[in-house]
Design brief:
The complex is a heterodimer of chains A (85) and B (352). Chain A has a domain of 57 residues. Chain A contains 3 helices and no strands. The longest helix of chain A is centred in the middle third of the chain and has 44 residues. Chain A is mainly alpha-helical. Chain B has a domain of 113 residues: V-type ATP synthase subunit C fold, CATH 1.20.1690. In chain B, 71% of the residues lie in helices and 0% in strands. The radius of gyration of chain B is 21 Å and the shape is globular. The chains are: A mainly alpha (85), B mainly alpha (352).
């Protein structure tokens, strides 16, 4: 009789699941930082649009301030690349 | 209407716009510079500011000081309507209720004008359509042949019940003072009720209304000082709902010495800005200076509140009030210059 209750892990299977968890971690690093940046940009963005509506000269500055939270995503991206490679 | 979609973003948007607009209002130095100018120079300066469009539009119908005055009121009305258009949800509802005070002013102007037989054109000049009644409605009201017919048009508005109740008495006595007091009392009672109805941000709205009521009552106390009026006669001029009850106000208005008056008021008033202003009133001053310093204290305090709660009703209300006083100041400046008043005398009448 064959015992189906116990599965044996081969070396390849271990390596593959490690790779899978790494990919998951990398995905979370980019995804969560993306959400964080989005939340941060919501307030800044609406204030920037409001200020630009009143005074068009500050468009450049407002745009710059709006994209500053993007740095968080870049950190996330760097971390995910470090995990993967 | 009272739900804001999109989280806090619309609040941030509109409050930032108000803040930018507030920063564009005339600074103190500019007023001081204008005090030394002649009337044509002031007119030209006003023309170069935000009021250019209105001056160009009205230039064919008015000239000189009337043009300035008309352009200022038109600009104010347009500005307030524009603000109403960009405010979201609950803030819009609050702003709309707050601007209803202009309806009271306009309706009273029309009724008074009609009763005194003023021409339609003349009434039209002094009406400022900044509230919920728009130009077309007010024009139709003015075009009606009698005051009674004009009042009939208000039937669906909250104003109507008070006007209906008080109008006969007002015509009989020939004075609309009581009607006016009743309208404002009703207006503030409605505002308080709305602010207490559990809407989000209602507490902040309530606080600013109560500050407004307190300032109004204190101004009335100072105005009544030195006049031989008994407490009973003043019963209907007080507005309840804030720091003072009507009975307290009646009692305070009978206080003889100014020191005692300031001490009694200080005990009740909470905001430090108001306490400072009251301290400054210990010596006898002309009434317009007293009112100015109280108004300044009110604006300062609201400004402070708007910084403490950056995304609330405060930035909008502060801007509405400051804009109103800018228009009043420019009008006072222009009128004062036209009457050849000395600069320091005009300065006393400015809220800067």
């Amino acid at each position: 009789m064959v015992d189906l209750g116990v599965a044996t892990l081969t070396l390849e299977m271990v390596a593959e699941s490690q790779m899978g968890l790494k990919a998951l971690g990398a995905g979370l690093a980019v995804g969560l930082t993306g959400i964080g940046a989005g939340v941060a940009e919501m307030g800044i963005g609406s204030a920037a649009v409001g200020a630009t509506a009143e005074n068009k000269d500050i468009f450049g500055l407002a745009l710059l301030l709006t994209v500053i939270p993007e740095t968080i995503v870049i950190f996330g991206l760097v971390v995910s690349l470090l995990i993967l490679f | 209407m009272s739900v804001v979609i999109g989280g806090p973003a619309p609040y941030v948007y509109v409050c930032t716009r108000m803040r930018v607009r507030k920063s564009k209002l005339l600074p103190r130095e500019e007023y001081l510079r204008m005090l030394n100018m002649s009337l044509p120079q002031i007119t030209r300066l006003i023309e170069e500011m935000e009021y250019k469009k209105e001056i160009d539009e009205l230039a064919s119908s008015f000239d000189g000081i009337d043009l300035v005055e008309e352009a200022l009121s038109w600009n104010l009305a347009k500005e307030f309507q524009a603000i109403l258009a960009i405010t979201p949800g609950i803030l819009k509802q609050f702003t709309k209720s707050y601007l209803r005070r202009w309806d009271i002013q306009n309706v009273l102007t029309i009724i008074r004008g009609k009763k005194q037989g003023m021409s339609a054109g003349k009434i039209k000049e002094v009406v400022v359509p900044a509230g919920s009644l728009d130009v077309l409605f007010l024009d139709r009201m003015i075009a009606e042949e009698s005051a009674e017919r004009s009042i009939e048009m208000l039937k669906n508005l909250p104003l109507y019940s008070v006007i209906e109740r008080e109008y006969a008495g007002a015509v009989e006595t020939g004075s609309f003072g009581r009607l006016e007091n009743e309208l404002y009392r009703q207006f503030y009672a409605d505002l308080i009720e709305e602010a207490r109805s559990g809407l989000k941000g209602g507490n902040q709205f309530l606080k600013s209304i109560q500050l407004d009521i307190d300032i109004r009552n204190i101004k009335t106390i100072f105005r009544l000082r030195g006049q031989p009026i008994s407490a009973e006669e003043t019963a209907d001029v007080w507005i309840p709902g804030a720091s003072f009850s009507v009975d307290e106000l009646k009692r305070i208005s009978q206080v003889e010495t100014i020191d005692e008056l300031v001490d009694t008021l200080r005990k009740k008033v909470k905001s430090p800005a108001l306490v400072d202003a009251l301290e400054g009133l210990r010596e006898e001053k002309p009434i317009h200076e007293v009112e100015n310093s109280l108004t300044r204290a009110q604006l300062d305090y609201m400004d402070r509140l708007s910084k403490r709660n950056p995304f609330s009703i405060y930035p909008i209300l502060v801007y509405l009030e400051k804009k109103k006083y800018e228009v009043t100041n420019l009008r006072a400046l222009a009128r004062g210059k036209q009457a050849n008043l000395p600069a320091d005398r005009i300065e006393n009448y400015l809220v800067i």
